[in-house]
Design goal:
Heterodimer of LeuC and LeuD. The chain is α/β, with parallel strands linked by helices. It has helices spanning 4-13, 34-47, 71-87, 100-106, 138-147, 172-183, 198-202, 205-213, 229-235, 296-299, 302-312, 328-336, 339-345, 395-404; strands spanning 22-26, 29-31, 58-61, 92-93, 115-118, 132-135, 149-153, 156-163, 191-196, 222-224, 257-261, 268-270, 278-280, 291-294, 320-323, 349-350, 371-374, 389-392. The protein is 32% helix and 18% strand. The longest helix has 17 residues, at 71-87. It binds 3-isopropylmalic acid and iron/sulfur cluster.
């Protein structure tokens, strides 16, 4: 009677792991990006270990501040490039390849049943493939670099079931925001959320990534969708590694069980400055925006850009509209399909694949009192610029709002 997490931790620790056990687990893949590798490598050096445990199991994408914004950033990135070379780490993705959480799936590292640990809080994204993906701090990452192991408290699990068909202008992001709005930012603290139901099954791999990506926004240690044919089809040709899909037992124990009716949902918006400050779009009073941002590890995939382009086709944006594909693969496919052309014609600006202004570092930071509608996962005070206001929504809602200059439902375009 085990949950998905208990099974993955049992395999990874060589014990019969139950919720609340403390285990030392073998990590299948470890990820650090340009931001956190700097700190992880510093700690690794301080630990005095000479060589990493296994260079083929470490993945390092540069995505947060790329291309480098200052000479200090450039120097830090140079040091990491040299360290990666010296350590023989070949799974390195430099400027323009894309966001870490997009690259790990694309490059075939996010596999069912695996334990994947990233030095980034949104590493829970890999749960979309039936992996246990979770984020840790940079010093914990240094320990993994050194030994390939880390201690964990096996999380209790909750089940979140969504049934029914999403409406025409309603997407995985809207469902995700509704779930977080209902459970709250601490509603799943240190729990693993397993997602079930006909709505989840009908979601594309991309939509499942949006859902699992934001599990951390309700405090979850992981968010997991049981792998199915869509998962296996996506992974075909991306890896040669064998993997074993893991499913929960019928009588697995869940600390809480939640149910959502998808067909009742309208587009959702998370209002400043908390991710659980979620309202149906019809409940919002008129809200002018200064910028629209479509991208990030939450909603910067091909499907997201296609939806935005379908709304922006033949229209002109009324505000600064930034579109940043989540990866080079996404960018290329969007270019081949004419999606990029449509977006450019509508007046959008296309940025280098990466995090862009999500974290407020560069490429679209907003001024005090400015308002940005964003497809990202966090709307914390000051995140995209001191004194700014961030509203989170789906790519469709962001695109519709870009046309009118105020927060607008895609149904109204
Ligand atoms: C910079 C990094 C540590 C951070 C995270 O862990 O999530 C960032 O990616 C974010 O989205 O806030
Ligand atoms: S896109 Fe945003 S949320 Fe995702 S990893 Fe980058 S900074 Fe973090």
């Amino acid at each position: 009677m085990s949950t998905i997490s208990e099974k993955i931790f049992s395999r990874a620790s060589g014990t019969r792991a139950k919720a609340n056990d403390f285990v030392i687990a073998d990590v299948d893949y470890a990820m650090a990006h340009d931001g956190t590798s700097i700190l992880a490598v510093r700690s690794f050096r301080e630990m005095g270990t000479e060589k990493v445990w296994n260079p083929d199991r470490i993945v390092v994408p540069f995505d947060h501040l790329t291309p480098a914004n200052t000479d200090t950033t450039a120097a830090l990135q140079k040091d990491i490039r040299e360290w990666l070379h010296a350590q023989g780490i070949k799974n390195f993705y430099d400027v323009g390849e894309g966001i870490c959480h997009q690259l790990l799936p694309e490059k075939g590292f996010a596999l069912p049943g695996k334990l994947i640990v990233g030095a980034d809080s949104h590493s829970c994204t890999y749960g979309a493939f039936g992996a246990f993906g979770t984020g840790v701090g940079a010093t914990d990452m240094a320990e993994i670099f050194s030994t390939g192991k880390l201690w964990f408290k096996v999380p209790e699990s909750i089940s979140i079931t969504a049934e029914g068909k999403l409406g025409k202008h309603v997407y995985a992001k809207d469902l995700t925001l509704r779930i977080i709005g209902t459970l709250g930012v601490a509603g799943a603290t240190y729990k693993a959320a397993e997602f079930y139901g006909s709505t989840i099954e009908s979601l594309s791999v991309s939509g499942r990534m949006t859902l699992c990506n934001m599990a951390i926004e309700m405090g979850a240690k992981a968010g997991i969708v049981p792998p199915d044919k869509k998962t296996f089809d996506y992974l075909k040709g991306r890896t040669e590694e064998t993997y074993e899909p893991v499913y929960a037992d019928e009588d697995a124990h869940y600390a809480q069980e939640y149910h959502f009716a998808a067909s009742e949902l309208e587009p959702q918006v998370a209002c400043p400055h908390n991710v659980d400050n979620v309202r149906g779009i019809s409940e919002l009073s008129p809200t002018k925006i200064d910028q629209a941002f479509i991208g990030t590890c939450t909603n910067g995939r091909l499907e997201d850009l296609e939806v935005a382009a379908s709304i922006l086709k033949g229209e002109k944006v009324a505000v600064r509209t930034l579109v940043i594909p989540a990866s080079r693969e996404v960018f290329l496919e969007a270019a081949r399909k004419g999606v990029i052309e449509t977006l450019l014609e509508a007046g959008a600006t296309i940025g280098t694949p990466g995090c862009g202004p999500c974290l407020g570092g560069h490429m679209g930071v907003i001024a005090k009192d400015e308002v940005c509608i964003s497809t990202a996962n966090r709307n914390f005070k000051g995140r995209m610029g001191t004194g700014g206001f961030i509203y989170l929504a789906s790519p469709a809602t962001a695109a519709a709002s870009a046309i009118t200059g105020e927060i607008t439902s895609p149904a109204d375009i």
